[in-house]
Amino acid sequence: MQILKKALIGVFCVISILIMYPISIVHAEWKQDSTGWWYTEGNSWATGWKYINNSWYYFGKDGYMAHDTIINNYYLNSDGVYSKGGEEVDAYWNALNDNSWLQENGIIFKNGKSYIEKAVVLDVNQDGILDMLIWNGTCSADYKVSVFTYSNSKEKIIKLKDIETFSGGYLGYSSSKKVFLVSGGHMDNYFTDGYTIEDDKCVNYYESTEHVDYLTDNNRNVISESHKYTLNGKEVSEKEYNDNWIQLGEIKK
């Protein structure tokens, strides 16, 4: 009887504590901003590998979901979901961790360190072969995007192009047009160019530029500014220039 009383007293104590200090249910959900997606966990966010709704995802230290890239030799597709990928995933991962390969292929290297801003792995022309874009550089003078693809028959990585971007770099990808975008700027001239891959060649899909002229007074204060827009070498209005982005569809950074 005494044991039963002690047990009942213990239960009542637990119930009393729960009433006085209710346990809040951790609410988890996906959220998005202009930078990307993250997954909330109560008042914090997920980092590292997380298994969500029967799929594996990876979140950086800043909480943002990784996508179109390789983490620890695991390929994360455009939705951020772990996907096995093809043999090119192993080849790209090994290349990114091989300093000799990086230097031989022109990736910016200084003081024994590679300067890679971002490595993007995606199927640009949607032919079933993953391609790799390496945005690399130390400053506006040498930023570039190096483009690679993989040959199943030759079992090797093929370098297709170095795209000079000055102060810019990789901007995003349009799956509807099968085009990746790079942007940059120099001396009041700004550009956003689109590229795709055809027959193992990186080809220019379109070019767009914005030039800004500033009118200043004797004290070099800006009085007014004017903008000139071009698409594929043809001067267009600001509206036509902006509409071009709409035609590209959703651009995934």
Automatic annotation (TrEMBL):
UniProt-listed InterPro entries: Cell_wall/Cho-bd_repeat
UniProt KW keywords: Repeat
Signal peptide range: none
Any Pfam family hit: Choline_bind_3
SUPFAM superfamilies linked to this entry: Cell wall binding repeat
Gene3D superfamilies registered for this protein in UniProt: 2.10.270.20
Cell wall-binding repeat copies, ranges: 46-65
Keyword match Repeat: yes
Protein name listed in UniProt: Cell wall-binding protein
